[in-house]
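User: My instructor asked us to take a sequence, write out its structure as tokens, and then describe one feature of it. I'm not sure where to start. Here is the sequence I was given:
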Amino acid sequence: MTTEKAQKDFDKLTEENGFAIAGYTSDTGNPIYHRVWKRTVQVAWRGEQEDTLEVRILLSYGYPLVVVKWNGRQDPKFIRDYTSPKRDFNAIREIVRWAGFEI
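Assistant: Let's start with the prediction itself. The structure tokens for your sequence are:
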């Protein structure tokens, strides 16, 4: 896959899946996109609490990179690069579902 095709696919998928430019760039100058999911959950002995899941993605040299943050903390298990934008978004959908949020 060429870098131009990867960028075209990436741009299309970010728009279709509700991601927006986060307002800052990577160290290499690539724009970072993100989306945040929120929900209210009941926590024993604490009551209601807001749960957040933030997914940040960027395209670097034709390869998508995904970073996931749970309640503001980066989860090291979910810092991954993928071979194509399509695989990237399939993985994001599974991560969001696994975390119990709605796409």
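For the description part of your assignment, you could build on this observation: The longest helix spans residues 3-16. Try explaining in your own words what that tells you about the chain.
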